[in-house]
Amino acid sequence: MRRANGPDELLYSLIELRPGDARRRFRKAIFEDYPLRGPLGQCACAYCGRWDQKLTIDHIVPKSKGGPHFAKYNLIPSCQSCNLSKGAEPIFEWWRPQRFWTEKREEILLAWVHHNSFVSAHTSLQDIEAFAEERDYYIPPSKKEAPISGGFCYTEWQVA
User: Fold this and answer.
1) Report field, pTM of the whole predicted structure over 0.85
2) Cα separation of 114 and 109, whole Å?
């Protein structure tokens, strides 16, 4: 089979993916895009900030509790010890009592979820607040400036 050699050729930008390759690329994108980094630019654990260990992917809302498996907003890099320790517990009930919890890492995680979710692009803040109020859900107070983080930075939390 002939290979396309340049951007002027029709087949140049087409990529053939097998399901396994697509999964690997999706998982790699999570490690590359998550904004928390170690001193040499490598990805760090979203919970404890360790960068010197092999990282796994953790579900923020566990699959056993109905969390989506292939939704980027529900997946974050995590060291093995944090991932095993969290198990199927709700994230904030497990994470906030830990000694390694910091408000900055929590803001980065919330910005990641917001940035990668369908809700952020298609729902106004007023609709989200009304939905939460009807169901008596808690929404953290909005801030004028969000954390500056890796591949994305919000100047306002509100969405248009």
Assistant:
1) no
2) 9
